[in-house]
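User: What would this chain look like folded?
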Amino acid sequence: MSKNGYSLTRFSKKNGYNWWWHSFVATHAETGKLKPFFIEYYVINPALWNGKIIWGQQKENKNTKKKPCYAMLKVGTWGEDKVQLHNFYDISDFYASSNDLNCKIGSNELTDSYLFGSVTVSEKEQDVLPEFMSGYGSLKWDLKVEKEVQFDMGYGTSWLFNLMGLFEMYWHVQGMKCKYKGEIVFNEEKYIVHPETSYGYQDKNWGKEYTNPWIWLNCNNFTSKLTDTKIDASLDVGGGCPKIFGIPLRRKILTAFYYKGEFIEFNFSKFWKRSHQQFSIHEDAQYLYWTVVSENRKFKIDVKFKCDKSKMLFITYESPNGPIKHTKLRNGGYAEGIVKLYKKEAKEFKLIDELEGSLGGCEYGEY
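Assistant: Here's the prediction, encoded as structure tokens.
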């Protein structure tokens, strides 16, 4: 079984979700302006399929507490014209392989090397079908992808622990740092996706519930403040409050930092690496802030990022048992900030580089 393949078991197919998230930056074909987008292939409770789509937010299903059951394409963008768009499909129109990433939802396809498809939601559908949980607009994509850096959580996402249903939510990052190439059309406007400025990312989540709190931060667009040059670097932070067999642990995060060919990991489940992390998320009237200090035997990073809340979405997911529990899950594509990298020399941490990042992906929510 591939960790980036389909991971729902015969048990979790009745009470679980699996999605593949992609985010990247595109260039407007006429103005040259950079703009971030996201595309997600998603399925929930596929084994409950009885011939028709079930939306958990539909009034009659809310009253009878029916579990949702559908495949979905979730796409969108951030900024002044921020929007999330949802198209839903029958489970009979969904296919995914557990051996590798090979997913089809209707005529929309996804592998580890390419993705193409389209989503359209009319203004009328937005107004009269609130169970769609969608804005209106359209997005069409035809993209190739090269995944350069992987962040593997280790034994916690192994086939055995997945079969046992050990955790409520699993995370695997096949493309912590990606290069996307191709074209997209958003609301009839054409964008070109160039590999060197796509600053791309791809991960997968699956499980039977969403973590609470929900924390994520990624950036692949870095410039050194010490040398004023572009740096081959990538940051990824994710976590919340993991649960083992339903028992909550303390709040924890998993962090990885890639710098000029060296992969540095801070992972509480790999205890032999002696990682220690401190983190906080807070907000003021304008910004949401992520502050992380991570340390292991060789390296230390100090992360201070923020994102303008006016450019962020309240992204929406139904839980496998029906309700929307995360009603204030902020998701953004304009995160910016500083990463300081230190390396231990003579038992003391010495500053190696100070990087300035922008156009990063981010997320935070708690209920």
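The chain has one domain: 12-365. If you want, I can go into more detail on any region.
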